[in-house]
Predict the structure.
Amino acid sequence: MATVTADGTRRAEGVRPTEPAMRRRSKLAPRAYYWFVWPAVIAFAGFHTLPVLIGVFFSFTNYPGYGAWDFVGIANYVNIFRDDRVLQAYGFSFLFAIVATVFTNAISLAIAMGLNAKIRARNFWRGVYFVPYILAVLVVGYVFQFLFSNSLPKILSGIPIFRDNILTNPEWAWTAVVVLAVWQACAFSIIIYLAGLQTIPADIYEAASIDGASPARQFRSITFPLISAFFTINVVLSLKGFLQVFDPIIALTNGGPGTSTESVTMLIFRGGFSGGEFAYQTANAVIFFIVITIVSLLQFRVLQRREADF
């Protein structure tokens, strides 16, 4: 009695398929998975890749977002490097991103080490520290706006910087945005560091304690080297996310006072969608994408080399 195999051939019962037949079956088997892959590929191409390519195309035009347009070549890209407002936005974005990244990772690592210790209600406190990550940025931002503009001037009236509303101070308003962004970003970074700390065997710390290593020495020689990969992930994700800061600024300062807290993403949004600079800000977005890509790749290269040194 013959049976029909998966590739459509007939084979007698009790006879093992030949090697070529088994190879054909192994090649045909994965075809079912394409039915799962292709819908995602098509959706990604339709909602991401295609709009990106269209945006790159319009960056070489003078399209204002409506009406007629003409090709202008690389004029938009040249003008961006001459635009003081764009350069100021890049300067603010990088300053903000570097400061926020440093504070986020320092605070997150310290809290993660505390939450990884043997403390009471440890799971409860882990949940508490993760709450900021699930809250809406704009809602939390308006709460922080009230604190900075009303509560702090009354509570800390003796400190000159807080005597007035710090959000109206062109020199210090960006620090309020850093506080909000770091407060919310720490929640995710803490989870990453906790995952890394839990991969370190407790026996290593016991052996180090027997040898007389202090807690600081254990951190330098054991903890940090063994979680260096998690440190790399957090730093790269933090810097990339902070460079694209948008919601905290909208909630706290709306880019003010003046343009002192205007980030690149806010400039692209304002000019591109309501300022009649669609093509110009699209070119800015292309440059910003390249900058973020280069920065991320450099981070990976430097930090992964540090991991190898450990």
About this structure: Strands lie at 2-4, 10-12. The mean pLDDT is 87. The longest helix spans residues 84-116.
